[in-house]
């Protein structure tokens, strides 16, 4: 279910996914097939997954506040680069505490564009600390976001502040080897 949260920022599916532990970092089997099977021919979630948006919304609500606030009330255009080099374009519309829709196309008038690759989504999803993993991935340029509206500008400002503070705190903790 943590993969759903990471793509919950990005895909937000809550059905089970299969991981393989071939190295220290898990890999996702069949992401392209999973995405293909998750949507009907018009790009709308299939009924079985549509009914799971409530579960994904509960997970969205459980994200730490700064992270949830960044992605709340957004119409996100997500570019997910798959391990095979292909790109999947998705749309995610969120409310204050819920995921309203996930589509295989950008929402009308998107407010935020998010770009990441499949492996980064997995690394964030399996991390014991989703917020730190997100901040690290953004700091390393593995997750990129761009405002497409004034609402998106506020979100990117919050994200920049959150990531900067998290990186500084984590650097200090590492320096003094506190809690690590």
Describe the protein's architecture and organization.
The structure is a single chain. The chain is 46% helix and 19% strand. By secondary structure, the chain is of the alpha+beta class. It has one domain. It has a 5-stranded mixed sheet with strand order 5-4-3-6-7. Strands 1-2 form a two-stranded antiparallel ribbon. Strand 1 and strand 2 form a beta hairpin. The protein is globular and about 55 Å long.
Structural class, judged by helices and strands? alpha+beta
Number of domains: 1
Strand order of the largest sheet: 5-4-3-6-7
The helix tally amounts to 8
pLDDT averaged residue by residue: 74
Fraction of helical residues = 40-55%
The rough form would be described as globular
Distance between the termini: 25 Å
Estimate the strand proportion. 15-25%
SSE run: HEEHHHHEEEEHHEH
Count of extended strands = 7
Q: Quaternary arrangement of the chains shown? A: single chain
Determine Rg (CA atoms, Å): 16 Å
Low-confidence stretches: 1-29
Biggest sheet record = 5 strands, mixed
Walk me through the topology.
Blueprint: H1 2-9, E1 19-20, E2 27-28, H2 31-38, H3 47-50, H4 53-61, H5 65-71, E3 75-81, E4 87-94, E5 99-103, E6 112-117, H6 118-126, H7 130-139, E7 143-147, H8 150-176
Parallel strand pairs: 3-6
Antiparallel strand pairs: 1-2, 3-4, 4-5, 6-7
Helix pairs in contact: 1-4, 1-6, 5-8, 6-7, 7-8
Which tags fit this structure?
two-stranded antiparallel sheet; 19% strand; 180 residues; 8 helices; disordered N terminus; 5-stranded mixed β-sheet; 46% helix
